Amino acid sequence: MTEKSSKLLAKARGTQDILPTRAILYQQIQQITQKILNNSGYQPIILPTYEHQGLFTFSVGEATDIVQKEMFTFTDRKGRQLVLRPEGTASAVRLVCQNKLVNNGYPLRLYY
């Protein structure tokens, strides 16, 4: 293997591989956590991996580190600015508002 191909096949900086033994442990922890949350009246939600950029620039401001340094922005085929979701709060609030979950009453007990 050449040095160039070795760099191309290396994991990206700041990431980690989770091998089977640890992955099984992670899954067990996740199952226990989900059981506790479900038994406590919380319901799961699953957020999209990407959102419209405006959701984050509006909610956290354009001059923040999240917007300027931590967001991966791309344009879709229709020219819309999208971002990989840098955190879940804005997406969760969008989900609640867009789907009118507040009409079901409070408290909202959701987890992701």
Descriptive key words:
single chain; 112 residues; flat; CRO Repressor; three-stranded antiparallel beta sheet; two-stranded parallel sheet; 5 strands; alpha+beta
What can you tell me about this protein's structure?
The chain has a domain of 70 residues: CRO Repressor, CATH 3.30.240.30. 46% of the residues lie in helices and 12% in strands. It has five helices and five strands. The protein is flat and about 60 Å long. The mean pLDDT is 88.
In this structure, how is the largest beta sheet organized? 3 strands, antiparallel
β-sheet strand percentage = 5-15%
The chain-level mean pLDDT equals 88
Q: Which overall shape is indicated by the principal axes computed on the Cα atoms? A: flat
What is the count of β-strands?
5
Q: Return the string of H and E elements.
A: HHEEHHEEHE
User: Which spans of ≥5 residues are poorly predicted at pLDDT below 50?
Assistant: none
Distance between the termini: 41 Å
**Which strand order do you get reading across the main beta sheet?**
2-4-3
Q: Which structural class do the helices and strands define?
A: alpha+beta
Which helices and strands, and how do they pair?
Blueprint (H helix, E strand, L loop, with lengths): L2 H7 L10 H20 L3 E2 L5 E3 H8 L4 H6 L2 E3 L5 E4 L4 H10 L11 E2 L1
Parallel strand pairs: 1-5
Antiparallel strand pairs: 2-4, 3-4
